[in-house]
Write a structure and sequence with these properties.
The complex is a heterodimer of chains A (133) and B (322). Chain A has 133 residues and is an alpha/beta fold. Chain A contains five helices and five strands. Chain A has a five-stranded parallel beta sheet, sandwiched between helices. In chain A, helix 4 links the parallel strand 4 and strand 5. Classes of the chains: A alpha/beta (133), B alpha/beta (322).
Chain lengths: 133, 322
């Protein structure tokens, strides 16, 4: 049977803008992936619990509140605590270029800022998820 | 990394949540591994109360499932939830959004939630659902709740896996109860009229009760009709009470074992059929199928004749192999 890439799309933080997250969710679905969409205002703890229960390959975080420098690294940290650091974490939203190196250093594999094409996101996920297992 | 993904068995037995999650993925991707595991640990099966929740799209099944799970978890039960959503017939992808509707319970320490894509199955569940239920059972969950994809008239797969089936109706859906055709109405052990604060709730409830009166009912269980407003937590405690009462009834009447035996017979038939098909495929091969299909389409023989010929050929092969 064919293995499907499973992605958790989550919105940490308190902003109520989930359009970007929904657009990404649809694009990934249309690329044949299974997308678990958890909605607004999730804490990093909730995101990591869901990711583990759902056994996802990727967590896609979307944040427009400006709190990404705190929230994104916290997700990576909690994954490490659960020995689940093999889950790929990517992020998107309104993120200043100057923040990106720090986020990558904290373990976010890639940051997609407004204007990124969906094809680029899909290609990145497909290239970085190991299918051999 | 790869080793941990495939070696979940030992951790599973010691109650590791991540291993359970891995096992559920295996049920979808490599079912034979899971079946071997379950074969070895069959004594861990048959202990959970399996509840199915079904009904038309938009009836509020996810919210109801979430509230019911909260109620049962607060009463001390450990729960596994399987939420099945449809997959795209074109790409095979899926957006699984049921978690959206059960925000708090999904993070309760006694609750494990898993979203599943129907992966093209048509009966309201996915092929892997049955094995997924068994894994949650073997893991030691007291109660397993399965929420099906939104069903219409004939998606009645849920009775082949659940001990107690809840059919959720809402006021003002099409031509009311008539729109829920025989199939889905007949599988209910409990009815819920959700969104009961809406206009028409009494009418829907009355219609369900009338319909139940007209149905021949030989059992001692009288099917309750419960009004709920899931989003406000109304009627949820009663639903939980009635579900537990139904399970007790199944146990004390001996029906639980009877139902499970019937399900097992069906499952045995299914397993043997697929085993047989695999044998036939490997002994005869796809080329012969294609040849015969062409002959049928070309009008040279009937499909019944072609099937008979394949069967004879298969029998010939096994006798000569012995």
């Amino acid at each position: 049977m064919e293995r499907k890439i499973r992605v958790l799309v989550a919105k940490p933080g308190l902003d109520g803008h989930d359009r970007g997250a929904k657009v990404i969710a649809r694009a990934l679905r249309d690329a044949g992936m299974e997308v678990i969409y958890t909605g607004l205002r999730q804490t990093p703890e909730q995101i990591v619990t869901a990711a583990i229960q759902e056994d996802v390959d990727v967590i896609g975080l979307s944040c427009l509140s400006g709190a990404h420098n705190h929230l994104f690294p916290r997700v990576v940290e909690l994954l490490k605590e659960q020995q689940a650091e093999d889950i790929l974490v990517i992020g998107g939203g309104v993120i200043p270029d100057t923040d990106i190196p720090g986020l990558k250093e904290a373990g976010i594999k890639e940051i997609f800022t407004p204007g990124t094409s969906m094809q680029d996101v899909i290609a990145f996920v497909e290239a970085n998820v190991s299918k051999e297992d | 990394m790869s080793a941990r993904k495939t070696n979940w068995q030992e951790a599973f037995l010691s109650g590791d949540v991540r291993a359970l999650a891995r096992a559920l993925s295996a049920a979808e991707n490599e079912p034979t591994i899971v079946q071997d595991f379950l074969r070895e640990h069959s004594q861990r099966l048959g202990r959970a109360h399996i509840i199915g929740i079904t009904g038309p799209p938009g009836a509020g099944k996810s919210t109801l499932t979430g509230r019911l799970a909260t109620e049962l978890a607060n009463r001390g039960f450990s729960l596994g939830l399987l939420l099945v959503d449809p997959s795209s017939p074109f790409t095979g992808g899926a957006i699984l959004g049921d978690r959206l509707r059960l925000p708090e319970v999904a993070y309760h320490p006694r609750v494990f939630v898993r979203s599943m894509s129907s992966r093209g199955s048509m009966g309201g569940l996915s092929k892997a659902t049955n094995d997924a239920i068994k894994l949650l059972d073997a893991f030691g969950k007291d109660i397993i709740i399965i929420e099906t994809v939104g069903t219409g008239q004939s998606e009645t797969d849920i009775i082949s896996v659940a001990d107690s089936v809840v059919v959720v109706a809402v006021p003002g859906l099409g031509d009311d109860i008539q729109a829920m055709k025989a199939g889905i109405l007949e599988i209910a052990d409990l009815f819920v009229v959700n969104k009961a604060d809406r206009e028409g709730a009494e009418k829907t409830e009355r219609e369900l009760r009338n319909m139940l009166k007209m149905q021949p009912n030989s059992s001692d269980w009288s099917i309750p009709v419960i009004k709920t407003v899931a989003i406000k937590d109304e009627g949820i405690a009663e639903l939980a009470d009635q579900l537990l009462a139904h399970y007790e009834y199944l146990q004390s009447s001996g029906l639980l074992l009877e139902q499970r035996a019937a399900r097992t017979r069906a499952e045995l038939g299914e397993l043997l059929r697929s085993q047989l098909m695999r044998e036939i495929d490997s002994l005869i091969g796809p080329a012969r199928y294609e040849e015969l299909a062409q002959e049928v389409v070309g009008g040279k023989r009937s499909v019944y004749d072609a099937a008979y010929e394949l069967w004879q050929q298969f029998l010939g092969q096994i006798t000569s192999n012995q």
